[in-house]
# Entry
Amino acid sequence: MGYLLKDSSPEDLIRAIREVARGESSLHPKVAQRLIGRLRGGGASEKEELSERELAVLRLIARELSISEPTVRPM
# Structure
């Protein structure tokens, strides 16, 4: 329900945990901005492509949550 960058402050982490515990989502502003850009139809630039490590982490999360690739594949 949330995503923070690894350089987020301890205060941001505590706030995000509390928001998620209340059933809200919590996204770091940079992540939210990127997500909104993609939802508006802006494709990812080469600079925004995921690294191999990021893809591996996403695959592990999807497998843990039993989410199939067609469910999350961009259109």
Remarks:
- The chain has one domain: 2-72.
- The beta strands are 2-3, 26-27.
